[in-house]
Design brief:
single chain, 438 residues, alpha/beta, Alkaline Phosphatase, subunit A, Gyrase A, domain 2, eight-stranded mixed sheet, four-stranded antiparallel sheet, 15 helices, globular, Putative AlkP superfamily pyrophosphatase or phosphodiesterase
Length: 438
Amino acid sequence: MRALAAAFALAMLAAPAAASPVLLISLDGLRPGDIAEAKARGLKLPALTALRDEGAAARGVIGVLPTLTYPSHTTLVTGVAPARHGVVNNLTFDPEQKNQSGWYWYAADVRVPTLWQAAHAAGLRTANVHWPVSVGAAGIDANLPQIWRTGTDDDAKLLTALATPGLVARLERQVGRRYPQGIDETVEGDAGRVAFAEALLAEKPQFMTVYLAGIDHAEHQAGPGSLVAKAAIEASDALVGRLVRAARAAMPDVTVVVISDHGFLPIDTDINLFRPFIDAGLITLDAKSQVAGWDAMPWLAGGTAAIRLARPDDPALIAKVRGVLATMAADPAYRIARILDRSEIAKAGGGDAGFVVALKPGSETGRDPAAPIARPSVYKGMHGYVPWEPAMRSTLIVAGPGIPRHGDLGVVDMRGIAPAIARRLGATLAGAEAPPAF
């Protein structure tokens, strides 16, 4: 009987359901174990555990290369790996620092259709609060995109100019407060944005995305499993509860999907990958120690770094860089777990780098070219490691009409989440690289 019941539950999960509105909530950095083992970890998560118990959850989600916020969130709304959607890091590649630490804020960089476009094409009304890579995104009817520059009042003007015309002013009057600055990644900033999301949910968008950054912020600053991180998770759980109540009050048949983009590891060491490239003449510095020229450049991604080549098809340059990397990998001080070549990067769905340096857990790529090889890390927690590192697995919970209680989705491919959401919406998402995850 148990086997029959399990088979029936899996069949229900696999069968297309009637079209349902979808609320997609991202909790940046939430580890699946923080829900599955909440009691053992001393966490009280009534909203998240209730959603899990009334619906289905994954044991973990295998993410993308690199396991960073912006590549992952773009995969979550496209169903394809970074190699295809084009957002291959958080920050744009900027070796001479001319872009002033600019991130991949703009949806113009996304090369494939998104869920917002698919929903819009199906005649559905869409909304967004703070989702990464959403500035100028097509298909969003009410868009509060994620962007920041300085954290000054000019950022508020910038957001107002880039959001759906008139939306910020209208919602600020309705909510009775200013919309939080994009640079504010705290739980308090999230709470402010949730108030605006509640106002939008009352308008019954049939597909809505909401991004909350507070857990990730706390885990970077204090480390995963820290008291600070636990407090952020519990506070975020309360915010999820608010969003779910608002969504269900407006749309009783709503499907709620809660995801995260990556896991987390505690770290203690910054590794300087720049020095060997400078010493080999692959990077040249000016009198102010700024990059004046480069043939090969590490593009940092937390637990990994993509090595970009100025001439990707130059055999002599490839051989020289390979030699530098082999010497580094042989030195235990660099804490290198593995060097991926171009074919391995392509197989993993990464970008167009010549190589990827994957660090061992406990280390991150340091930002100071003048630093020693290894020194105490700035952060206490990090991600960006290779997606097959188990600690990088992320979270998926889904609850809604037709989703059986206590469903077990197993281990999920992140690329399967977007097509599953499209199916729930009754929309068509072209080109997804994995079958629907639920």
